[in-house]
From TrEMBL:
Annotated signal sequence range: none
Any Pfam family hit: Iso_dh
Keyword set includes Coiled coil: no
Domain Isopropylmalate dehydrogenase-like, first and last residues per copy: 10-363
Name the record gives this protein: homoisocitrate dehydrogenase
Organism for this UniProt entry: Ascobolus immersus RN42
GO cellular component: mitochondrion
Protein family membership: Belongs to the isocitrate and isopropylmalate dehydrogenases family.
Keyword annotations: Amino-acid biosynthesis, Lysine biosynthesis, Magnesium, Metal-binding, NAD, Oxidoreductase, Phosphoprotein
Any one Gene Ontology molecular-function term assigned to this protein's record: homoisocitrate dehydrogenase activity
EC number: 1.1.1.87
Amino acid sequence: MAGIAARTLRIGLIAGDGIGHEVVPAGRAILEAIQTPQLKFTFENLQAGFQTFKETGTALPDATVDALRECDGGIFGAVSSPTVKTAGYSSPIVALRKKLDLYANVRPVKSVDIGGVKGKAGDVDMVIVRENTEDLYVKEERTFDDPVNGKTAEAIKRITYRASSRIGKIALEIALQRQSLRSLTSSEPSIHSSPLLTITHKSNVLSATDGLFRETVRGVYEQHKDKFSSVKVEEQIVDAMVYHLFRQPSHYDVIVAPNLYGDILSDGAAALVGSLGLVPSANVGDNFVIGEPCHGSAPDIEGKGIANPIATARSTGLLLEFLGLKEEAQRVYKAVDANLFDGKVLTPDLGGKAKTTEVIEDILRRL
């Protein structure tokens, strides 16, 4: 912490639903473990999710949003979704992204040799940067009776210059930052020799919406070419992208995509490294960040104490990274990777028999 003034950061903790209550404590324990006299954390437990909706009539209470505005960052666990249409309910994490202007969903996907055994996908080290505020997720739909086709449903797909330029810029910044981190850890081999940004779209069909996304991201690169000159930029149509992602995942470094494609690609990419329980994300804006594991509320294992906390641990690392605490983030990543490489304390989704708390304790010991 040399050269950094003493600071206390307030972190909002939203367990949400299901196994969120079992994995969010991992994030808190990690932050407590890395505290120093120069760096302290305080915490505020906040409510959101489907259970909160059933109890209060709202999935995201105003009090939670107001409290987060007074925090420096947050950790979100998981949220359940009703299996049938439920009047008045909408996803709290989607609402949070809009209310706090968390316009980028950043999802690193990295392979680790679990128990010293290389995964079937080989070396994977990519970040998917997903636009977080628009596309089909504006949730503007309507149904009507068409005289020819009968009952018909339509949804608005909205792409704007503002959102596309912001996501393009942060994706390029991440590509540069990843290259900088690789040079700092040059003792550890990297599969990427130089930064690469892959723009994913479907502008061959959706020439207006995806065409605007593609043109805007390319425009950001051209406008700031002096700064991003070391970054190679390529494009991939989304259906071909899915094929190549699974055929040659080691090719990809940073992928930037509109909301829907980014959602699909990041969940699919999780399969390359073995489990959604390993994949973190961060919801990032200019003034706030929320770490969020990519898995759901997992009602099938809720309460059994076997949920994998590693996605939350890595999401906590991302939270630290976007708070400017890069050295502390690297400590967390290394502790998690060491746990996986050792392979002796793993949850059942990774072939082990350990409890959630045992994995957390092992990571804390390595910290």
